[in-house]
């Protein structure tokens, strides 16, 4: 299983690859894409996206990279980009609950949600610039100062600026307050409170970055650097 879904008035969608730190494999990306497509049709009041106590999502899964091609990697990034736009324009309230690490594409999933609740051990990183992929840069700029994350290193919830809007303890209050709002006024309220964003431009920028030749090589170099940084010299 890569995704656990509880469907109801409020959908709870839990990334469920604990053995791989909820890294976004092709299977998990497709499961999330399908779940968001289903939710768009079902139109729950809200959707809560969460991981586990150690990891929200450790970003783009680079295991098995030797078996990938530029085309397969680009396809997965584009499917992630499509999921980000579904979250950002969802016809329901979206809430990310983060405990532990939200890295790369995992952090982009958080940034695409209306409420971004983070526990004291949460940390965020946006390392895409290190391998030349433009995933959620424009969205991040719309909600907080992207300079906070410029180096690509993990940033604590306390230092993450307006990326974090509350704590996990706020979840029930947020959902209760939303339930009391007249359903007829919810779409207008979502449109009013969400940052101005051009999904077509975002997907076009992502497409240009992933179809540039050498995506596999760039990710291979990035992965090698990450692994070497973890090994004491």
UniProtKB/TrEMBL annotation:
Domain of life: Bacteria
Name under which the protein is recorded: Putative enoyl-CoA hydratase echA6
Family: Belongs to the enoyl-CoA hydratase/isomerase family.
Top EC class, one word: lyase
Keyword hit for Lyase: yes
UniProt GO BP: isoprenoid catabolic process
Keywords associated with the record: Lyase
GO terms assigned for molecular function: enoyl-CoA hydratase activity
One Pfam family from the record: ECH_1
E.C. no: 4.2.1.17
């Amino acid at each position: 299983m890569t995704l656990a879904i509880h469907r109801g008035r409020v959908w709870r969608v839990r990334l469920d690859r604990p053995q791989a730190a909820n890294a976004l494999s092709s299977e998990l990306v497709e499961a999330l894409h399908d779940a968001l497509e289903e939710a768009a049709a079902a139109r729950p009041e809200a959707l809560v996206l969460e991981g586990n106590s150690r990891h929200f999502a450790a970003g783009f899964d680079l295991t098995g990279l030797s078996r990938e091609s530029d085309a397969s990697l680009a396809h997965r990034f584009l499917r992630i980009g499509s999921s980000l736009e579904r979250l950002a324009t969802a016809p329901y309230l979206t809430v990310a609950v983060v405990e532990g690490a939200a890295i790369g594409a995992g952090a982009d999933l958080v940034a695409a949600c209306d409420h971004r609740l983070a526990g004291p051990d949460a940390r965020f990183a946006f390392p895409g610039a290190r391998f030349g992929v433009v995933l959620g840069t424009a969205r991040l700029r719309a909600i907080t100062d992207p300079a906070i994350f410029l180096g690509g290193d993990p940033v604590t919830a306390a230092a993450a600026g307006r990326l974090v809007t509350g704590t996990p303890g706020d979840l029930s209050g947020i959902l209760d307050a939303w339930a009391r709002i007249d359903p007829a006024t919810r779409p207008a309220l979502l449109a009013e409170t969400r940052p101005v964003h051009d999904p077509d431009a975002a997907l076009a920028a992502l497409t240009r970055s992933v179809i540039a030749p050498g995506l596999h090589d760039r990710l291979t170099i990035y992965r090698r650097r990450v692994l070497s940084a973890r090994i004491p010299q």
